UniProtKB/TrEMBL annotation:
InterPro entries: Rossmann-like_a/b/a_fold. The lineage of its organism: Bacteria, Pseudomonadati, Pseudomonadota, Alphaproteobacteria, Sphingomonadales. It comes from Sphingomonas sanxanigenens DSM 19645 = NX02. This is Phosphoadenosine phosphosulphate reductase domain-containing protein.
């Protein structure tokens, strides 16, 4: 892992280089090794969907301090909706789903939630960044580093993006260039003297494993039940956040939560019976309030959380 051993990267010097840090194992190791090799890095961007696991948010300041010690500019960016029509304003993927009575697009077989909540806010930040504007004005491109490793799972993700051409970005996949898998990434992070982060994934995501769901705190489980209950009247081709049942798990996370007694059945029933109706009433009242004074979806979620905590006590 010697520094300055990547002569083939000479073309990167003098070009804006942006690293996408997803707060997980792969992208963390990518940034550590990239810096150790003495390669240029202009800025690190982290897109916050608002529904990362508690462990992931706890890791955020740990690596931010590492970046500060290495004098790396870094920013957390978020998708900010601008038009709310008659809706209460929302600022996270969870709030978006509850507002529109839907599930994340991955539950329907799409990927627009990642594009909307991760890629778009990063691209918007770069669009207002002077080094990017200057290189684009000269007909050049910004280099964007993406942390896909060489494991089979990331190979499938890489294959999905392979061949993607942008007028604004050159996409680089350093871990694949180095032929690093997830184990190599974890070892590199430990060698740096840092704890290995938890897998970075939204707790509303179809990709969440049953073992991961079982470690979620009760407040996350309740909101999962709420999201599926809110979307239920509009679901025709999918069962829930996990989409379709398999031999290992049902398509509905609520069903899994009930079957494993992760929440009391009475509490699940109360959420399903009452919360969606209360939310619809809240949205109807909010629609009559001027936008500048309108309560946000976060206000209703805080009220929901407080209410179910009192019932559970």
């Amino acid at each position: 892992m010697a520094a300055n051993d990547d002569a083939c990267h000479d073309d990167l010097f003098g070009v804006p280089v942006v690293a996408a840090w997803g707060m997980g194992v792969d992208s963390t190791a990518m940034i550590i090794e990239w810096v150790a090799r003495g390669l240029p890095l202009s800025v690190v961007l982290t897109a916050d969907t608002g529904v990362e696991r508690e462990e992931t948010y706890a890791y955020l300041p740990i690596f931010q301090r590492w970046m500060d010690r290495h004098h790396i500019e870094h920013h957390v960016v978020r998708y900010i909706p601008k038009r709310f029509k008659h809706w209460p304003p929302y600022f996270s993927l969870l709030e978006n789903c509850l507002t529109n009575a839907t599930l994340p697009s991955i539950s329907y077989g799409g990927h627009s939630c990642s594009a909307k909540w991760k890629i778009q806010p990063q691209d918007q930040w770069v669009a207002g960044w002077s080094p990017a504007q200057q290189i684009w004005a000269r007909g050049g491109k910004v280099v964007k580093l993406i942390g896909y490793d060489s494991s089979p799972a990331d190979s499938r993700r890489y294959a999905h993006r392979e061949g993607h051409v942008s007028d604004l970005y050159d996409y680089r996949y350093p871990l694949r260039e180095w032929q690093w898998d997830r184990d190599a990434c974890a070892a590199r992070i430990r060698a740096e003297g840092l704890p290995v982060p938890h897998k970075s994934a939204c707790w509303l995501c179809l990709a969440q494993k049953t073992s991961e769901l079982m470690t979620l705190p009760p407040w996350c489980l309740r909101l999962i039940v709420l999201v599926e209950a809110r979307a239920a009247p509009r679901l025709q081709t999918v069962e829930g956040l996990w989409r379709k049942s398999t031999r290992e798990r049902p398509g509905s996370m609520t069903r899994f939560i009930r079957e494993r007694s992760l929440l009391p059945s009475a509490e699940i029933d109360a959420i399903i019976a009452g919360a969606p109706i209360d939310l619809i009433d809240f949205q109807r009242v909010a629609a009559e309030i001027p936008l500048a004074e309108r309560p946000t979806m976060r206000d209703w979620i805080d009220r929901f959380n407080a209410g179910v905590e009192r019932l559970a006590a």
